[in-house]
Amino acid sequence: MPLKSLTIVSFFILSASGLLCGAEPSSENEERIRAYFKRFPQSDTNNDGVLTYTELMAHLKEMRKGRSQDKGNEEDKDDGFKKELDIRYSDKHKRNVLDYYPAKVSDDPSPVYVWFHGGGFSGGDKKSVRKNGGKMIRTYLENGYAVVSCNYPFIDRNNDVLRNGMLDDYVENDYVSKDEPEHKSSRNEYLKIMRHCGRAIQFIRSNAKEWNIDPDKICVGGASAGALISQWLAYSDDLALSDSKDPVSRLSSKAQVAIGHVQPLGTDSLVMKYMDSGEAPLFIYSNAPKKDKIHHPINALMIRDRANELKIPCVAVGGGRNELPVPKEGKSWLSMQLEFCAKQLNLSSPKVD
């Protein structure tokens, strides 16, 4: 029985039973539970021959958990990537883990491409880079990079601007963030998450010798929320603490190149305010249309223009649904992104199919 059907069954059981009246429904007094028991006899956990509503719901929960694990395992199988999964970069949160994709064997230390997934700071996962063949990271790997994809803590929903009415304020204010106390408080919660991500960069640098990577050639990219993270890491103050007893904390959290896809709201208040001349080069790709309030193209245009004002090397491209220029014939956003990284890191010209 499909999981969706099971959920519907549980709904009907709850609504049709006498659970709220004090009598727990079971296979002895509810036809639907009886049918479920017949199909899944193992759901009777105490083996007394009677399936209670409590036992049924516990069985449903386990089935959902099993399906979720199976789906995750399938995504990890046969994708052709050599990888080390779920490496912990910090003990401060359960989601502080990353996946490491080693570069092709080389005598010279490899440049690194670090990716932070999108999801509005409330969803998403590091394994999303492998979806649909993982063309982006595959291309980086083929060009001699090591790749790292990171998870990070999700935001407390009480502080999420997308769920507390601030999105409307943002749109009504011509896509400029407000500085009222509640807005500042919300932004501080995002900054806490970004500091976790800074620890990920420090951890990656701490493995430079073991992984044979170049700690001075790190490109950091991300989509949506991940774009804000990558750019904050490039333009905010370094988290390195020179006098720390922790050797990892003494390392830099800064990116040499910042990459942002589908630039979202919060670009002005979480990234642009930290930008200064002489900082990391910036590559932007966004094909979001103007009707996309969260990723309105004005965000990509604003940060591009700010980079140009500060004489920060910047390339910004689109896909035809907004004002950003599209790649020239024979080029793609991915080929341009690889070329940009290679130029800024003084690497040989990349090959992109």
Lay out the secondary structure.
Blueprint: H1 3-16, H2 31-39, H3 53-76, E1 84-88, E2 97-101, E3 110-116, H4 135-142, E4 146-150, H5 166-172, H6 181-206, H7 208-211, E5 213-223, H8 225-235, E6 257-261, H9 267-270, E7 282-285, H10 298-309, E8 314-317, H11 333-344
Parallel strand pairs: 3-4, 3-5, 5-6, 6-7, 7-8
Antiparallel strand pairs: 1-2, 2-4
Helix-strand category: alpha/beta
> Main beta sheet: strand number and arrangement?
8 strands, mixed
User: Could you tell me the number of beta strands?
Assistant: 8
- How much strand? 5-15%
Order of helices and strands: HHHEEEHEHHHEHEHEHEH
CATH architecture tag of the largest domain: 3-Layer(aba) Sandwich
CATH topology of the largest domain: Rossmann fold
**Overall radius of gyration:** 24 Å
Counting DSSP H or I runs of 4 or more residues, the number of helices is 11
The CATH class of the largest domain is Alpha Beta
Terminal CA distance reads 43 Å
Helix content: 25-40%
Low-pLDDT runs of 5+ residues are 1-21
Shape estimate:
globular
Total domain units: 2
Please name the fourth-level CATH homologous superfamily of the largest domain: Alpha/Beta hydrolase fold, catalytic domain
Structural overview:
The protein is of the alpha/beta class and 353 residues long. It folds into 2 domains: 3-72, no CATH class; 79-344, Rossmann fold (3-Layer(aba) Sandwich). 37% of the residues lie in helices and 13% in strands. It is built from 11 helices and 8 strands. An 8-stranded mixed sheet has the order 1-2-4-3-5-6-7-8, with helices on both faces. The chain is globular and about 75 Å long. The model is unreliable at 1-21 (pLDDT under 50).
